[in-house]
Amino acid sequence: MKSDRIGLVIVFASLAAIAAIAYMVFQYQYEHRLQDIRSNGVSLVRSVSGVPYSQLAPGGAQQGIGQVLKHSTRNNDFAFVSIINKDGQPINEIVSDGLLVPSPAVPTQPSAWLGEAQYELGPGNLRIIEFRAPLFENGELQGFVRLGYKHPDFGLSTGQLPFIAAVALPVFLLVPLFYLLLRLEVRPVREANQQINQLMENESFRRVEVSASGELGDFIQRFNHFMELAGSRIQGLEQDQQQLITSTKLLSYRKTRVETVLETLPEAVLILDEAGSPTFANQKLAAMFGVTTEVIVSQPPQQWCENPDILQLLAKYQTERKNHNFTDTIRFNLETIANQAIVTKTYPLFAPNSPAAAIGTLIIFRDESQEALARQARTDFVAHLSHELKSPLNVLAMYSETMLSAAGNSEEFRIEAANVISDEVSRLSTLINGLLNLTQIENGSLTPDKNLVKLRDVASAAFEEARHSAIGKHFNFHFDAPKEMNPVLVDKDLIRIAITNLLSNAVKYNKAGGEVRLTIEETDDAIQLRVADSGIGISEKEAARVFDKFYRSVDDRVQAISGHGLGLALTKQIIELHHGSLSINHDYENGAEFIINLWKETTAVKQAI
Q1: What is the pLDDT, as a whole number, of residue 108?
Q2: Please, which residues bridge with residue 453 across strands?
Q3: What is the per-residue pLDDT across 135-171, written as a single tens digit (0 to 9) for each?
Q4: Rounded Cα–Cα distance for residues 435 and 2 (Å)
Q5: What is the pLDDT of residues 237-287, one digit of tens each?
Q6: Which has the least CB within 10 A, 219, 295, 465, 606?
Q7: Rounded to whole angstroms, how far apart are CA atoms 88 and 135?
Q8: What angle do CA 546, 550, 551 make, to 5 degrees?
Q9: What is the pLDDT confidence band of residue 337, given thresholds at 50, 70 and 90?
Q10: Is the distance from CB of 570 to CB of 585 less than 8 angstroms?
Q11: Going by DSSP bridges, is the β-strand pair 140-150/78-85 parallel, antiparallel, or unpaired?
Q12: Torsions phi, psi of 349, nearest 5?
């Protein structure tokens, strides 16, 4: 299709060339004829103006000169010849067929006697060129001679067809020759274009094999050289790209690994760059401030932190341009962030290849709330323990001193002192044993000696012991347990201590004439023990701390009863050591009820899964 278009372009170009040649020929002929008419007309009217006027008038010797002028001019150009007097009246006229002589315009000035004028005649607007000259007689102006010619037309005449054909023939003969030569010259370009298109489709960089000479051959050679250079360069870039991709993957892997390590740290972590802007924050830091890690990294600190101390710390690394090659520790108050005790440690980060230059800062936010609570708990523990040990020791010291005095000689006093000393020693023994058991359980050094035990017998023995200790208080004891029960794999002594502690509290914190109830039920999932009383009860607020060591209610009725606050804590540890659960029945309204669930093996496995 491209070749056809080129052929059509050549044909139209040749036609345009022929048209241009014809136009120039017509133009030349037109101007040449117009020049001939002016030359002939001027020379003839001047020749006639030399003839006396009397000889040109009718009857004169030269009256036939008009016929001579008519036949001396080409028939297709002659229009008219007219002799007029000085008033403009025609005296003698010879006119070409079909024409009229235009009315003359008699010049009045001598400078206009000899001249040229143009007219348009008839409906066809035939253009006439008129040449005018004066006629004299005895030196005086008598009239004028007017010689008119048809104005030549611009166009093709029948007689010019052979000439046009002679011009068009060689042009048309040269067209196929030129087209053939053009095809021969364009063929290498077309082949090169096809090969280049194939290279582009295949995205390859091979040589273009085209036989060409001259400048096209030089161009193909330079193009092949360029393709070789481009292929070599692209190959090098592909290798660099592969190395870059490998390096990027390695860096991404290292970055992911580092971020994973930072995420697994127990502390909240924030990394700042050289300008002090956050570049990484782990989830623990985001949870500490109640935002996402993206907010911490992308937003200013004022958008996600309201604590002035932390804002001041971060602002220090943003405003100071010097390197912070030191470790900084800041401890915030307990109420600084959501009632937490926060300690921040800052560490400078150094580049591996330049250990002397810091490239950022690592800030670790460590929550010391538990440590603070633990320190407070240790303080309270020592205070409670001191109080619990001091009270019986004071009683022992008082009675021992009294027995050494004269008042100790009384038999009645010695019996009373022996009973009090026995009770206080028992109290101390219970306290010390409870502390030892709690310490062993918390340290993991106490391993329960589990055996198949009939839980009904163990609970019955503890129940009878509690009822015996409440003789004289008029309590109503109720024990409800099925006679046939599957044995339970537990540590008999530890379970006995747990049940005894619950029953002891039910007796201790009950009211006169109250009720103590021990119920055992066996379900598909567990063996459940319920110890209930109708005593003081436990408020919902105190229920959350009733299992803490040394915790005792602030109720005056509870404070009036001696106790050290270890019974429920030890009971809970023992039950959890057997993978069971100890809870308070909040729906129980007439006192307090504690529920022990000793899960069966299948239920324990399901809960673990």
Answers
A1: 79
A2: 488
A3: 888 878 888 888 888 888 766 666 666 767 777 777 7
A4: 105
A5: 888 888 888 888 888 888 888 888 888 888 888 888 888 888 888 888 888
A6: 606
A7: 12
A8: 35
A9: very low
A10: no
A11: antiparallel
A12: -105, 130
In 3-state terms, what secondary structure has residue 282? coil
pLDDT above 70 as % of the chain: 72
Confidence class of residue 465 from pLDDT cuts 50, 70 and 90? confident
* Orientation of helix 161-202 relative to helix 2-49, angle to 10°: 150
Judged by phi (left if over 0) then psi (alpha if -120 to 50, else beta), residue 120 lies in: beta
CA distance 465 to 463: 5
Contacts of 551 (CB under 8 A, 6+ apart): 545, 565, 569
Number of residues written out for the chain: 609
Tokens matching residue 445: 């050094």
pLDDT for residue 520 = 92
Provide the pairing of β-strand 90-95 with 592-599: unpaired
Give one word for 415, left, alpha or beta, with left for phi > 0 and alpha for psi -120 to 50. Answer: alpha
Q: Which two tokens stand for residue 6?
A: 């080129």
Q: Answer for the pair 60, 142: CB distance below 8 angstroms, yes or no.
A: no
DSSP string, 109-164: SGGGSSEEEEEEETTTTEEEEEEEEEEEETTEEEEEEEEEEEPPP-S--GGGHHHH
Phi-psi domain of 217 (left: phi exceeds 0; alpha: psi -120 through 50; beta: other): alpha
292 to 49, 149, 276, 298: CA distances (angstroms) = 118, 105, 19, 10
What is the predicted pLDDT for the residue at 334?
37
Position of tokens 């440590």? 371
- Average pLDDT on 551-560 reads 67
Tokens representing 364 are 């670790």
**Confidence band (pLDDT; 50, 70, 90) for 594?**
very high
- H/E stretch holding 368: none
Beta carbons of 227 and 206 less than 8 angstroms apart: yes
Task: Say what the alpha-carbon torsion angle 373, 378, 383, 384 is, to the nearest 10 degrees.
Answer: 90
What is the predicted pLDDT for the residue at 14? 76
